Amino acid sequence: LCGLNNGEDRDFTNKKYLAWYDPTIENTEICVEACYSDAVEMDESPINLQQFEANEIYDPNADADVVYARYEDIEIMRRCQPKSLENLPEKVRAVLGGGASTIFPDLEEAWWVVLVVVIIAIVLCVFYIFLLRMFANELLWFTVIATICLVFTMACVLLAAATDKLPEDYLDTNTLMERDLTEQEKQRSLIIGVLLVILTLVLIILAYWLRNSISLVGRMIEEAGLIAMDVPSILFFPMIPLVLALGWFCTWMYFTMMIASTNTMDTAVPASFTAGQRVGSMDRITQLCMAYNVFGFLWVVLIISAITRTTIAGVGSAWYFTRDKDSSEGKSDQLSAWIVMSTFGRTLRYSIGSIALGSLILTIVYIIQAICRVFTASVNKKSTNSCVVWYTNCISCLVEAIVKCVEYITKYAYIEIAMYGIDFFSAGSRSGHMIKTHLEKVAVVDSVGDMMLFLCKLAVTFTSGFLCDAILTGSGLTVNNPRAITLIAMVVVYLVSTSFFSVLETTIDTILVCFCEDMESNDPEKGRPYFMREEFKDFITQQKNLMHDDEERS
């Protein structure tokens, strides 16, 4: 092992760095005193390590008469890593793919294009949030109606194809639908078309039945957009947890590589041992350390995510329970310019224990879920007993349902923690009661709101992709793989848009919880006025009157 005295003729105390002679050949690891800062000329015929005598140290630093197939590299955590993909052997580059070696040079040439596209995407995200603030209800109903029309159109096309009644011009212009379908394909198209017609009817019934709840979702999205406009710094707050998560990931990778390098020397050294062979094995303590390392990584990631959600929920609840929201003077008294950072500090000071406990429960549940999935996959693959397979799948479904319930309750528990500063179990109890009491509102807000925000993210991502392709085409840059650059830009934009719209998603959930608490705790007729805005209050009153008229007609 590099950096240790492994016995007679294997003293690597001064050779602390692990290097590879050729990554395409097994057992070519060597311990060196320093990584190769200068590229060495490649030898035409690779050297076979087995030609060396047992226990002979294979060290290019000590033998200058032999030419070794090495490439320029840099030291990363006591490992000599290749500095550039272009210096890797042809076999490795073939494994990575023919275009892999051109991506990095293309990024060096077109990095500013990706940066410009990301900046445009940020502007688009803010524009979409402003658009949702102004026309959320209209956009929401447009999305619902467009979805119903799309499903019905697909049903009509499939039914027409099954009955040979597609128009000739459609067949001539559409390459996805063949003119001549087999009987089996016609039958399949007929079945799918009938199912889509049924789905269309179900969607129409649901849209009519949930029309009040859908309108309520639109109003809540408008309220969430208003929070983003009144406290714009909340949109950029996820950047702080992102930096923390990246720092934690780098720290975790460092310790993971250190644990993976900590082996126990075997007492019996094989006769064919060379310096390139590893004669150690991972003992049980090291395996437990690796498992604990993975557990800790997941736990801390969930803690960072929970801190983000709790902070955003704290800002949203502070805004909701502020009197005179429409007055700039009223807001200035209770909402300071540093409300996001003050809420973040309050979360770390008073609620970190509850957040850590909730994240710990989620971590344990996720690990149980992973174990159950691996076990179920193994049973389905190896077992021939149908009863055992059925029983195992039932247990797996039960575990998945428990995981979803824990996620649901925990998500709203963090909002209760942000609102009242209570412990996790009390917050979980309150959130469970809220979900049970307002199940219809919670389900509709979650499903419809998430769908709306997902469509916004897709719109921003694909718009940025088209812009990136247009800039690359119009700027005259000489890039080998413009599609790869566009794809990278779209991935980055999707992550950025997810960061922005996740703030809106958490704010919508917070508005829902605050609204339910406001309706339960206050009553204007008893001298306890609502905290909701006047426009929102007028909307709720109008909804109540409509529901009362519907009940009378029924």
Q: What's this entry about, in short?
A:
With 554 residues, the chain is mostly helical. The chain is 69% helix and 4% strand.
Q: pLDDT below 50 for ≥5 consecutive residues: which ranges? A: 38-70, 89-93, 170-179, 265-280
What's the order of the H and E elements?
EEEEHHHHHHHEEHHHHHHHHH
Biggest sheet, in brief? Answer: 2 strands, antiparallel
Range of helix content: 55-70%
Number of helices: 16
What is the terminal-to-terminal distance?
Answer: 82 Å
- How would you sum up the global shape? globular
Record field, number of beta strands: 6
Mean pLDDT: 76
Write the layout of secondary structure elements.
Blueprint: E1 17-20, E2 29-32, E3 73-76, E4 79-82, H1 90-96, H2 100-162, H3 168-173, H4 183-209, H5 211-230, H6 233-236, H7 239-260, E5 264-265, E6 280-281, H8 284-320, H9 328-334, H10 339-350, H11 352-382, H12 386-420, H13 424-437, H14 439-475, H15 482-521, H16 534-553
Antiparallel strand pairs: 1-2, 3-4, 5-6
Helix pairs in contact: 2-4, 2-5, 2-14, 2-15, 5-14, 5-15, 5-16, 7-8, 8-10, 8-11, 8-12, 8-15, 11-12, 12-13, 14-15
